[in-house]
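Recap from last week: sequence in, structure out.
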Amino acid sequence: MREHETKLVFHSPLGELMIRFVHEKQACGYRYDIGIQALRRLDRFLCESGLHAVELPREIVDRWTAKRSHERVGTQKLRIAIVRQFTLFVRRQGFSAHMPETRQAAVVNLDFIPYVFRYEEVNNILEAADRLPPDKRTPLRHLIVPELFRLLYCCGMRVGEVLRLRVADVDLDAGILTVRNTKFDKDRLLPLPNSLTERLRHYATALGEPVPDAIFFPAPDGGPYSPVTIYGLFRRFLRECEIPHLGRGKGPRLHELRHAFAIHTLARWYREGDDLSAKLPLLATYMGHQSLVGTQRYLRLTPEIFPDIRSRLEDFLGQAIPRRADP
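Predicted structure tokens:
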């Protein structure tokens, strides 16, 4: 059984169809981990709703897809999308199923602008990570956390990608990471900066000789750290650096280190006189995006931060980069 495969157990009248639906998705090459979690929640909801027939009535679907209090719009939209896919499958099997409309989702606020870390702020965060003391419950964290945060910023990696790295994925002779089980289920190779490669060599030496399948940044139990734990440390570093946190959904978020990598990389290329239209596809590939559309989300620049970059990028991208509304 592959790592991402789990035993499928559902209890509602639609349980057997859910299993067949997941198998169909996986046969098409999808891991479908998030979909399985969503279907399990739907399965419990159907049982609690007293469903006895193999069907998806409108009343139940409407209650399931309604927005919860304090729920993010993106979470609701994902739930609706999964139900729509499952509904199509149920109908193909000859059963009755109500199709929820995508417009049921609340309107997404597209005016959100991620927090853009300045260079000195990133340096301060990394220095705060360097000062993290050992802890009785996590005796290696003072070795692990500084290098983990440097991968988040210096390579623009997603936190889950860093936490899942195994020893065999880190080639410190060649200075290359192999990132597996990514967001789009595609592996990719990441060349490391020479300075970071050297730091990771010292880190690996300090940890000894773990087996190739071991987690590269191990929690005390040998498994990966929880993203919640890393986020908690990030909030701690923000406080130490006197960088205010504006509240949930307003940032700065841990993901903003990935955002900073993209913007700072573009700024460096700009200063060096590189052709941004030629470089942008390289950035998209390095960050693991399927297309330039994914990378454009990281380019919500303001003229006060990097003047002149916007005009050069818009020559290549047109109006794809959102503008910030004037106050």
